[in-house]
Amino acid sequence: MRRGLAVCVALGCWALSLWLALTWVRPGTAWGAEFSSDSAIPLLMARAPHVDLFAAYYWGQDRFGAWPFLLARYFGGRDWSAEGLQALLIVVTWTAAFPLARLARTGVVAVGLCLCVPLLVGLPREVRAHLLDISQPYGWQFAVMAWSWLGMRGVLEARTSRGAWGWGLAATAFCGLAFWISVSSLPSLVALLGVECLRARARGLAGWRRFAGAAVPLVVAGVFERQLRRLYHRFAGRTQGHEFRTTVSVDWGHLLENTRQVLSLMGAGPVPLGGALLVLLGAGAAWWPRHGRRGLAAWAELSGAAWLALGGGLASLAQLPLLVAVSHVRLNAYSPRYLALAHALALLGVAALVLGWLASRISERVLRAAGALATVALAGAVLRWPGPPEAREVHAQARDAAEALGRVAPGTLLMGGYWDVYRLAGLQPLSAQAKPLPIPEDYQRTPFHIRAMKAARELSWIQRLEAGAEPDEVPLEQELHDVAFRRDPEPYLRSPGYAFWRYVRESPPPAGEASPTR
After folding, report:
1. With 0-12 CB in 10 A as exposed, 13-18 as middle and 19+ as buried, what is 211?
2. pLDDT of amino acid 470
3. d(CA 373, CA 363)
4. CA distances in angstroms from 100 to 3, 133, 203, 292, listed in the order given
5. How is residue 109 annotated by DSSP?
6. Under the phi-then-psi rule, with left for phi > 0, alpha for psi from -120 to 50, and beta for the rest, what region is 138?
7. Which of 322, 420, 437, 466 is a Cys-bridge partner for 449, taking CB atoms 3.0 to 4.6 Å apart?
8. HSE toward the beta carbon, residue 1, CA cutoff 13 A
9. What pLDDT score does 208 carry?
10. Phi, psi of 241 (to 5 degrees)
11. 471 by DSSP, 3-state: which?
């Protein structure tokens, strides 16, 4: 009876927090991430009429695996909206609570994690803004890493060969997804494997075969991702004329500066990453002098919550050398998003530590009452805030302009700045979605539209306007990808914040080529 009540409380807290997140964390709102052109790319990928190997990664880069968008398209069709894809990301991220609760083992800690995992993902702005942003891999990555962790423990704890094979296949699948979404999963998964091997050894597991078997999923996943990336580069080079290969190198000349910048980022925010890691390090420093000398016997006495805290802390720390050593972080101005995964893992460790402390010092009756109170509070929040928040003015203007463009010129070839064309195309309904293509000087996420542009008789040009301003003159003539176009005297559509111009080709397109129209 008590176990059934605990399960109900856990599932109730989880479901209510999920409902609040689905309602409030929406693109373009105060609680959601900004909907930018980067956010629109996953949406355009899920809507793509054709899928080939170029869709294995986020269009135009090999650092962000695209399996979430491929699965969304396969199971949910092509008619996705920004809110729908955001909801899918939230649901997948929320499922991380289940493997983590299973890893905790202790009933009270497991119940608490069903509430704490959504809270640590959805409340701190410095985590929510990146983990729940569809333009970033971190939410998907956090979830599949949690399932991978459970799979690796399952391999080490399996009592039969058949069970070990089953857990091994599951761990391989999730590790493969974790590596595919981002190779930055590697150091954290290696740290988690080390924690699980130490735990198994302390609990009496001997012999090298089972330990080697637990490492196999990481090896297979790494080989799979490497081969997939190689095929992607070959295909992109052959079909798009560019491999879109990310140059990753050790930033030897800037290691001290990188360390200073990363440490500075770790201290930012109301719930700083550095503070969470200091709490975990302090707990370890307090435990070691009293118990460390007893060797494996002391490790064997650790609770499930303690192992979870150790794994979360080490997995978080494993991310930091990567951020310091790789030049890519510096070249992208030390964006706080690179610390998002480490931040979530560190907060997970602190949450497990606190829940384990509460479970050992407070009566089960009080904890059950606290769980019931949390459920009631979440239910009250659901009733109090039943509707989504208002969209930011900038997002509302972009949405209105995108819808107006879809009514006037459905399916138009849309050109302009990078931060405009993809954003507006992603905010349009699928039936009227424009073909977005940035100017030649900007980064090309959709190089396959260049061929359509070279065959087009006309195209639409987007111009962003300052508040209350009239359209400024845009070039009367432009040469875009070696094709000359001339604009009409006046924009054919105006919407608050935007103006749209018609450009007509000065020479006829090549004979026999398709000619997309406005």
Report:
1. middle
2. 64
3. 16
4. 18, 22, 20, 26
5. H
6. alpha
7. 437
8. 0
9. 86
10. 80, 10
11. coil
From first CA to last CA, the distance across the chain in angstroms is 65
- Backbone φ, ψ for residue 135 (5° rounding): -85, 0
Predicted local distance difference test score (pLDDT) of residue 474: 85
* Cross-strand bridge partners of residue 463: 499
- Give me the amino acid identity at 486: R
Instruction: Write the CB contacts of 335 (distance below 8 Å, at least 6 apart in sequence).
Output: 329
Q: How far apart are CA 160 and CA 163, in angstroms?
A: 5
Give the per-residue pLDDT at 86.
Answer: 95
Kind and range of the H or E run holding 493: strand 493-495
Q: What is the pLDDT of residue 513?
A: 54
Coil vs helix vs strand at 186 = helix
Residue type, 180: W
**How far does Cα 21 stand from its chain's mean position?**
15
Total length of the chain: 518
177 dihedral zone (left: phi>0; alpha: psi -120 to 50; beta): alpha
- Give the chain's radius of gyration (CA, Å): 26
User: What is the H or E stretch that residue 298 is in?
Assistant: helix 296-300
CA geometry: angle 218, 101, 151, nearest 5 deg:
20
Looking at residue 8, what is its pLDDT? 82
Task: Supply angle C-alpha 148, 151, 154, rounded to 5.
Answer: 155
Assess contact for 64 and 178: CB atoms under 8 A. no
By the 8 A CB rule, do 213 and 207 touch? no
Q: What is the SS3 assignment for 466?
A: coil
Q: What letter represents residue 507's amino acid? A: S
* The pLDDT value given to residue 268: 85
